[in-house]
Amino acid sequence: MSFGASPSLNGTDQLGGGKRKRVADTKFYTVRLGHRPGIYNTWTECLEQVKGFKGAVFKSFPTLTDAEKFLNGEDPSPSSGSKQTYKFYAVRSGRVPGIYTDWPTAQKQITGWSKPAHKCFSTRAEAQRFLEGDGANDDLIAQLESAAKKSKKGGKGKEAPDFTYEPGVGLPVGAEDGFDPNILLQAGTGNVIIKGRAQKAATKLHSTGPVAGGMTRVYTDGSSLGNGKQGAFAGVGVYFGPADQRNVSEPLPGTRQTNQRAELQALVRALDIMPRDQHVTLVSDSNYAIKCATEWSKNWQKNGWKAANGKPVENKDIVEVLLAKVAERETMGSQTKFEWVKGHDSNHGNVEADRLAVEGARFAANMAASL
User: Fold this and answer.
1) What pTM was estimated for this model as a whole?
2) CB distance 88 to 74 below 8 Å
3) For a pLDDT cut of 90, what percent of the chain falls above it?
4) Which of 190, 295, 344, 348 is flagged as catalytic?
5) Cα gap 348→92, rounded to integer Å
6) How many CB atoms neighbour CB 155 within 10 A?
């Protein structure tokens, strides 16, 4: 894995002998676990790499040397002159595949998981290579070879395995559309596993017709800790369904951390994710956000984005993005509907969207507190 961006470290002067002299008040932000691990010289760049990334590991340092040590898994300030190293736990097959820096978190991903694949490494690069699949088919090949050997021996009185072909020979009888019915691709990990008897005997479910007219319902919400006050932190929540990988929980970008902006941004993020050629109903407990998208914006556009009181429209930047996405979907024949629901009530989707939004706001607050 390439450590990323390796952004240019502004605020450093090149000296003889390859050494760098740190300019006063310069900070180096190290992202050890995030979208693109590396060293960044601004908090904004660092935030982009860690927001929305579960289990992100990052820290700021006054010197480049300490930042590089932290990136490589070392303790930049070891006590008593001892050098402390870190371990990287790569989970290739588990609940949430990825690289973890503590065993308890990694263990949660594999406990009770059928055929987990994980390994501990001393460097992130090795862990990443393992995660990206170097030798990813070794486990499957070993299982196939073992099963083939048992089949040839007849199981010595025991029931022979379900398949009797050697790896690479070809597809068995009954293969459909070029796919071997004895194996299964795990969508979450990309790994191939051997089906058990229950999986082979299972009846495939087929759609009996369009669901709600082909309309997808997505729940959105925004939250702001300390809304309206200096130092507030806002978050965005988008809920597609239980354990849906499209669910969003992230901090609100920008310096204005208000609840209304978070509500609008949640609608934008939902449309970012939804295919443009599919109908969608966006469910929100914010009358403000819905009316911005469906009613008020029509007059605002006519009046040059001025409110009834003659003042510039608040949150125009996000509203314009939202309207542009809706208009783009209309050109493709897709419907975008907005539906209001009472907040903090018994509606499961709204409750979950609110939870995701609050988590996003808390994540932003925790990140700021750690720097």
Assistant:
1) 0.48
2) no
3) 33
4) 344
5) 32
6) 11
